[in-house]
Amino acid sequence: MRGILIALTGFAYVVVLLPILIVVVTAFSASEFFAFPPKGLSLRWFEAFFASESMRGAFIRSLQIATISSMVATILGTMASMAIARRKGTLFNLVQGLFLAPLIFPAIVLGLSLLIFYKSIGGVPDFLGLVIAHCVLGLPFVVRSVTSSLLAVDPALEEAGQSLKASPIAVFIFIITPLIWPGMLAGGIFAFILSLGELNTALFLTGPGVTTLPIEIFSYLQFQGGQLVIAAASAIQVFMIIAIVLIAERLVGLKRIVRSG
Predict the structure, then answer these.
(1) Which of 62, 68, 28 is nearest to 45 (CA)?
(2) Domain extents for the chain?
(3) Gap between the Cα atoms of 26 and 39, Å rounded
(4) Mean of the pLDDT values across residues 198-218?
(5) pTM of the predicted model, to two decimals?
(6) Which of 67, 148, 218, 251 is most buried when burial is the number of CB atoms within 10 A of its CB?
(7) Residues 96, 102, 106, 108: is their CA dihedral positive or negative?
């Protein structure tokens, strides 16, 4: 039985990681066309990526949106978790379910819904609209990870702080935050990575001059070709995610992050 589980796990890793590895290796190809394994190695496609104003601008915009939306999602998700984590009852279960709803509904439905909502209130700037959408998508990950961390905190610690006349803000900053920050970091990381690669909602909410990297990749591949430039763009995203994971490992440790998430 153990051998079967190991074999299935190995197969799952191959299915998930092999396509990514092929894309990353192909991004360093020196040839004009897609070929694996590449006949030579070169950085020409990375240079072409950064030389393209539209690609470069979309990449920077994606970083800005991912950073802002993940920070806002972390703050709002932590506040929501503090309000509902230890409370019981139908109302609080319903509220928690609403926060987790974006995990259930297709992102494309959310994008269409937000588009209709934005138009109904007179319109929202494209950049702000994307930040709101990505924040909504990242919020469930923060709520789940922070709630998990909060449930592991002994309520007696909060009561001890309150008995010493500490304000609720002081209790949160000096007692709760040091105990739950791995969960906050995990939720923020998940929200950032999700935003960086989000395509479905952005299809409805981007406008002229305000596109994200996934939208630019989709458009470039659909209308202009150039698969190797796309491979370079994808490789850059992979390298960024690996860097984020390595930094998180140094700060907290992947085991604590996965356990919090």
Answers:
(1) 28
(2) 1-42, 52-260
(3) 10
(4) 81
(5) 0.83
(6) 148
(7) positive
112-127, pLDDT tens digit by residue?
A: 888 888 888 888 888 8
Q: How far apart are CA 221 and CA 161, in angstroms?
A: 57
Sorted by sequence, the CB contacts under 8 Å of residue 42 that are 6+ apart come out as: 28, 29, 30
Tokens of 152: 């592991």
- Give the separation between CA 209 and CA 57, rounded to whole angstroms: 9
| Domain spanning 52-260, CATH class | mainly alpha
Dist. CA 101–CA 257, nearest whole Å = 22
Q: Which of 115, 93, 92, 107 is nearest to 138 (CA)?
A: 107
Residue 172 CA: distances (Å) to CA of 72, 78, 145, 155: 18, 11, 17, 12
Tokens 């490992």 appear where?
249
| Backbone φ and ψ of 208, nearest 5° | -55, 125
